Each structure stands twice: as C-alpha cells, then as structure tokens.
Amino acid sequence: LQRDAKGQYLFDLLCHHLNLLEKDYFGIRFVDPDKQRHWLEFTKSVVKQMRAQPPFTMCFRVKFYPTDPAALKEEITRYLVFLQIKRDLYHGRLLCKTSDAALLAAYILQAEIGDYDPGKHPEGYSSKFQFFPKHSEKLERKIAEIHKSELSGQAPATSELNFLRKAQTLETYGVDPHPCKDVSGNAAFLAFTPFGFVVLQGNKRVHFIKWNEVTKMKFEGKTFYLYVSQKEEKKIVLTYFAPTPEACKHLWKCGIENQAFYKLEKSSQVRTVSSSNLFFKGSRFRYSGRVAKEVMESSAKIKREPPEIHRAGLVPSRSCPSITHGPRLSSVPRTRRRAVHISIMEGLESLRDSAHSTPVRSASHGDAFAGPGRSSRAESSERVAVIADESYSPADSVLPTPVAEHSLELMLLSRQANGAPCSIEEEKESEAGTPAAEAEGELRALCPGTGGLGPAQAQQVNKFVLSVLRLLLVTVGLLFVLLLLLIVLTESDLDTAFFRDIRQTPEFEQFHYQYFCPLRRWFACKLRAVVNLLIDT
Question: Would you tell me which of 85, 192, 402, 458 could form a disulfide with 427, CB atoms 3.0–4.6 Å apart?
Fold first, then answer.
C-alpha cells in the first residue's frame, strides 16, 4: 500500500478480488496492539489508522447484517453472510434453543458435505465438526438425524439460504457484543442489530430499543450514554461503562454507523455527530457509506451472470473443518510462532489458548470450548442440553481478530512463492511476553525520545492539546464577532429597526458616552503619536 492509500481503495480491491457487488454490508476489521477492535475507516489513510508496524493483519467481516439476508440479490453475497453467521454461531454470539441449534448445524453439514452417505459418513460423523463453543452427544445425534432424514437432496446454496432464514429469526441475529457494565456494576453486553439497540445480561435480552426510538448517543471517557424517547414522550437515558476509553469510543462509533445505516432514508441525511454537547470538545464522527434502503435499491439493478463460488477455498472455515478434505493448515491464531498442519481435534484444542477480540478477558474463557474426550462431553451433556440456558457471555468464546507478527509475513510470502492463495483468515496474535516485545520495551526505555510516554498516553495528551486549541480559537472568534457588531452599532449609519432599538436603550447610550467615546479618543491620540514619531524619524 502507498502511504496515502485510503481505506476505500483497499476495500474496493478486496471486493473486486471476491467478485462482490453488494459490498456495503461488509467491512474490514483490525485490532490495535492494545487488543482493541476497530473498523477500517474508508475516508482515511490505511497506514495512519494502524498503530502497529507492518505487515498489517486485517479481516473481512460482515459489518451491517442484512435485515432480510434471504432477500440479497446475489448468491456470492448470501454465501459470505452465511460464513459470518456460521462463525457467530461457533463463537457463542448467536444463541438458540437445542432444536434450532440442531437444525442450523444440519444445514451447515448439508452445505459442506452434501447428502448423507453411509459409506463416507460413519457413526458419529457429526462430532468431527465444531458448530458451537460446547457440544453434547445428544445434540450431535440430533444434528445427524436431521441431516440424514430431512435435508437429503438440498444443494449447498439452498441449505445456506435456509440457514440464513432460520438465523434471521433469532433474537441475537446480528449481535456484535461490546462488553460493558451497568450503573450497578453488573456485566452486560451491548450490541447493535438491524432492528435496534440490544442489551444482554446473562442469557436474557434486558433491553431492546428500536432505531427510531434512539435520539442520541454520546460518550465521555469510559461512560456511554444512550438517549431514548419512547411513547407518551417518555424519555430514558441508559448509562453503561466500557473497559477503556478506546473501547467506549469504538462502541459509540459503531452505534452512530448502525443507526445511520438502518434508520435513514438517504445518505444525504447523514450528519456529522459530536460526542459532546460542546462542539469544540470531544470526538466528531460521520458515517461515510450508503444507507440500507439505497443498498437494496442498488442491488435490485444488478444484472450480470452469477459469479462462480468456490466454496472449498474462498474463505477457509474456522467453525467446522471439512471432513472431506482432511487436515488443513489451521487458521486459528496460536501463541507459538510456527505454522504447522494439525489434526482437527488438535486445532480445536488449541482454541483454549486464544485471546479475546476485546480488551476484557473472562475467567471462564478456558471452559468455553468442549475438549476432544468423549468423557468430558458426557459430563457436560446435561449442562449444555439447551444452549440458550447458559449464561450469555460472547467474549468467553470470541476468537481474536489478531495483531500481526512478522512471522506471518514470512508464512504468507512462502505460500505465495509456492503458488498457494493467501487467506486473510490466517491470522496470528502477538503476545506481550514474547522476546520481541520485551526487546522493544527495553529499546523504548533506552531511547530518551520515546521512553517518556506510551502510545495511549501520547494520544490523550494530543487530544487535550487539541481541545485547548479549539477552545482558544472559538473564544477569539466570538470576541472578534462581538467587536465587529460593536463597531457597526457605534460607527455605522445603518438605520435598521434592529440597530435603532439597541441604540435607543439607556444602557447602550451610557456605554457609548462613558466608555466607548473616551476609549476611541484615547486610541486616536495614541495612533497620532505613533504616526508623528514615524514621520519625525
């Protein structure tokens, strides 16, 4: 990338590579060195948005979930949304009852391996797929039963379409969880869906607010405020606390973008939003894309031959490694700096060491995945009989959008040299305790120019300086406007009704004769003295 290349250039390049026209639903996500997620802003330079050193690792994701995914025009778009929702199901974001979970998993099986074949699919074949953070034998038997008896003859595209229709009916469809705490200190997850703002606590949806009821969103530091206006002019302010100021700002920006995308009729209605009531303070942000209605109208005009879809290799599946292709290079990030071929169960076991994509780490993260042993599944069969009955903790099972390591560049270059495609899904996470990170910390300590402030502290200082400069600029501007108004009132001959009423007030007459006239005479005297001095010299 050129240093001045904008995010839009990179996104268009990627969509051209994928032969994707309905691209407004998607985005590019990356994670900074503090493990905070960000969406790549298309109007800004890619390099300037990155706080890490190249090579940069980014991930192609669904950013705005379609209100009706089955209504998408092209099959390639539906397939990419299918992959995202399948990933959400695996990471614990899409919750459902056992019956719905079995049906969704059976659709995935049918789409990936086709019809049931006793010769190819032995007893317990569904256990080789990892559809959810946790499995039970009872659930696996139900999945296999539906796949064998109800889905025979369905083409992959049909199974994916049925999967999307079912997923869209679930309460947590489109949820991208942001971990927070409410005013009582209870853990909660905030999310923005195609239909509105959602707050989840435990396995319950405690708040659902439609987009037309959300009047304002703002944040101050770690505190996020949502202003709601409901029926009978009832106004509510919901307050939540994010783990860090950066996480709170990311939450606010996601809310602004989602509300603009789903609520507005035209992109021309989009306005710049400030995080503060004072326009010279806080962050300013503006959604730069098209809105949902415009996207649907544009999609209806697409007329081309349907592009070919390479389901086996377009985007390697994390959630269920295909049993028809055998072991493949793991796309799961690991802490060790090596790229090796691992078996399916080893790949699932390695998920235990994965970090979150959010700065908050849950203590129960290691228990979010089922182990390979059948005994552990038997022990947890009663506990996970109904997935929706578990405590809703998406961050427990969310895999990271990782920070790239230099070893990733070597791996990608070697694969390119061998003619193999490089997938943006093959990501790695840089650990704070690695020798490279320790050496970098020692280098910062030795260099006097960089050891004073860390990146986060320097950013806070810059924000404070900018706020002070904005305040000074606004103050000077207001004083200048008042001075111009005063000169017009006292020196001009304009005889409008507005000026006449002001001039006739006793207060203005007193100010004019007791203060302004003496000040004008003093200023004129000093000016003449300076002019005479210049003439004499």
Answer: 402
